[in-house]
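In the laboratory, one determines a bound structure by crystallizing the protein with its ligand and collecting diffraction data. In a computational setting the workflow is compressed into a single prediction: the sequence and the ligand go in, and a structural description comes out. We illustrate the idea with NSP.
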Amino acid sequence: MKWSDEAWNRIQPVYQKILDMDFNKQLTDGSLDKEKFKFYMAQDAYYLGEFGKALSAISSRMKDLDDVLAFSNFASGAIVVERALHEGYFKSLGVPDDVKPSPTCLLYTNFLLNHAAYSNVEVALAAVLPCFWIYKRVGDYIYELQVATSSNPYKEWIDTYAGEDFANSVNQAISITDKLAESSSPSQRESMHQAFEMATKLEWMFWDSAFKLEEWPV
Ligand SMILES: Cc1ncc(CN)c(N)n1
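The predicted complex, in structure-token form:
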């Protein structure tokens, strides 16, 4: 069985919880409170900048030049989206440019940067993979359900992750991760699973923190 098939099976309980989240249900039917979406957008812009740096660090650690190029393209793609959020949603929603990360956002981005810098590269790949794969699956799921209510104010955001370009990046990231997993030892493959599962939980926490408008306790 491919590493990615095993990984996807192992995260099913958390993935189902993600589909069931109020944030995603309300985004789908368009009833999500604007403040929550605004909070999410601001945090996501911070997240994407740090995610771009993690992808860039991973790119520099790859051996195969095609993989260096792929991760370097993913990194620039993340930063292009971050810039577009500032130009688009930040202006239309009135989000200030200097976003301070929430506790969950900081936890998640530091988790990714830490793996990108210090873990074996295949584990670093497994840590960033949910950022691609879960968004693709959740994006497709929301897209399918929202068609009936095309007046949804969040339609533009929903369309972003249901597009073909993103699908190609996701498939490429999965197959590079599988390739590295094939030449990894059983214990390295297990470390990859643990990083993948932890990042999946952090994805859940990221949506949850936006729904709660999470603040620093002190
Ligand atoms: C938190 C989060 N995770 C993943 C993605 C998709 N790259 C995102 N925009 N934001």
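The pocket of NSP is lined by residues 44, 47-48, 131, 135, 203, 206 (CB under 6 Å). Keep in mind that any predicted model is a hypothesis to be tested, not a measurement.
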